[in-house]
Amino acid sequence: MGDLQSLRWIRTATHSQKRQEMKRRYDDFGLSRSEFEHLIEEWCFNQKYRAILKRRFLDGILLEPLAEEFDMSVRQIQNIIYKEGDRVLRHIPFSHV
What we know:
Blueprint: H1 3-12, H2 15-21, H3 33-43, H4 47-58, H5 63-69, H6 74-89
């Protein structure tokens, strides 16, 4: 898939396709841990949400343990990962998409 096509897919992906992307880990995107962490730091503006994204994408922690750790509902965690994760994933360099 070409670079422009990849970017277009991220922007036009269906809800279920985006949900599948949120289940992946940083190494699934062809990025190093530090590269993905930098993207989270740069594009996620809420400190608590950054911590949640790091625990999910970098450490691979599942939703239920995240909800307990951050004293939130599983649904709240899902929404944060979906919305904030989408913002971060949009900024993956073309060569990695």
